[in-house]
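Researcher: Re-running this chain for the archive, since the previous output was lost when a drive failed. Same request as before.
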Amino acid sequence: MNKVKNIIRNSEIDTLSDTIIRFFKADKEAQKDAFLSSAIGELEELSEKITTASLQDKRLSTLETADGERNKAIKTLGTVLNGYAALPIESKKAQAVPLKAIFDKYAKGRITRESYAAKSSLIESMLQDFAAASLSTNISGLEGVAESIALIRTAQDDFAKANDDFLDASVNKGASATSFNKQIALLINEKLVPYLNAMLLTGNARCSDFAKNIEEEIRRINEAIAKRGSFRNSSIDK
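Model: Regenerated structure tokens:
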């Protein structure tokens, strides 16, 4: 039985650990082995931790995407207002002046480059400024402005939700998914695989079915990793 390749992805080793645990729980004979019971107990703990950490990583990615949508919405409003400011139609240009003044106040402060928390505060302040009753006629008189402001409101609300999810998951995150990846790989490669190889070599019937299932699963994972590496190398050659 070969060891798991060290370049295995977090998602792959999470799935592999779940599969090993599932095989073990379905194998009554393997469960009688004290060493395997102990090792699988360790694996279960690590498997739960990498799943939690991976979920946190996904939520961070979602948070970054949501922030990107905020930036996009802000830039859209800026484009619309700049367009009206450049129009050779004095009535439209005049209506855009106070709106553009508000936008420029925040844009010149480089709102899109602020930290998540600071940006949220600035966006809320900007939206409050645009909500002034004295500006309602200006906004309604310029096609696309109200829609652009609404886009910012939606993007900010979506970001706030994503941020809440991220913070909730942070409480239980602990270490990174990559650190758990290394711990799981070490447990499989330096504890489970050598032991199962020894059991196969000595003809231990109690562990044979479990060992063969794990061997097949590791082979499948390693082949997928190898194919990924071959595809990447062929792409580079081109």
